[in-house]
Write a structure and sequence with these properties.
Elements (H helix, E strand, L loop, with lengths): L1 H35 L6 H11 L4 H24 L7 H39 L2 H7 L4 H38 L5 H11 L2 H27 L4 H31 L3
Length: 261
């Protein structure tokens, strides 16, 4: 009985800690968005963050999408050959890439690169008292540091996902035409026939939500960092872990509740 009680206490403490963290992130996001809609604005900071989140993440996102699309087409072909359904490779590949793999993989790859960088930068500013210096200079850290990152990631990630989807479909096309014996023109016609606007809309909605989440995780953990250099390391690690978990959770919620019909 004592062991069971301790297990319940541990589980309850973990759940309460998680809910408290989610509540803290929600309040943090509400504060940042509330101040983002009121001047002063910092367009130069916004453009800088858009470049950092979007342009410099393009190589890793593109390579990930290319390899994943090619591997997916190969696996669909192998599985379909067991039921004489090899012709479904173009349709399944484009639907899987656009609706699921493109936004999720892009979100995770950008989170690993961007969330950690945001957390490390802001945490370093926290432990070196640069955030306090901004306040002293009558510059709101939420407007100057947090809001541009949240807005930039939310706007740029859908563009990255569009590119990732196209490259993922290209990867499937290349493996299908060079290795699996598909005719290139027929593959493209079948791909266009089975791709619907609902698939694209689902992908873009997921991308925008994932962008907001990964920027929020990085900014929140960096802003609340304490404990010197060790605190910067903890903030960076926590930012990536939280971003990954929340992206996968949001993907499940959006897939089932929003686009599950």
């Amino acid at each position: 009985m004592r062991l069971a009680a301790r297990a319940l206490v541990t589980l309850g403490a973990f759940v309460l800690q998680g809910l408290a963290a989610l509540g803290g992130m929600a309040l943090f996001a509400a504060t940042a968005l509330g101040r983002a809609v009121r001047p002063p604005w910092y367009p130069a900071r916004l453009l800088e963050q858009m470049a950092l989140v979007g342009w410099f993440s393009l190589p890793v996102v593109g390579l990930t999408a290319l390899f994943t699309g090619a591997a997916l087409a190969q696996q669909v072909f192998v599985g379909g050959s067991r039921f004489n359904a090899e012709s479904t490779v173009p349709a399944i590949t484009v639907i899987a890439v656009v609706r699921e793999l493109g936004p999720v993989l892009a979100g995770l790859m950008v989170a690993g690169r961007v969330s950690s960088a945001m957390a490390a930068e802001i945490a370093t500013m926290r432990v070196t008292e640069q955030l306090d210096a901004l306040v002293t200079l009558r510059t709101d850290p939420f407007r100057y540091l947090i809001a541009p990152r949240l807005v930039a990631a939310t706007l740029v990630l859908p563009l990255l996902v569009i590119v990732a989807n196209a490259i993922g479909v290209l990867g499937g096309y290349l493996i299908a035409t060079t290795r699996l014996g598909f005719n290139g023109a027929t593959y493209l016609v079948t791909t266009a026939r089975y791709l619907e606007w609902e698939d694209v809309r689902s992908s873009l909605v997921k991308a925008a939500v994932f962008g907001f989440i990964l920027a929020l995780a990085g900014c929140y953990n960096g802003f609340r960092s304490t404990g010197g250099a060790a605190g910067v390391g903890r903030a960076t690690t926590n930012a990536v872990v939280v971003a990954f978990i929340l992206i996968l959770l949001a993907n499940l919620v959006i897939t089932v509740l929003v686009f599950g019909q």
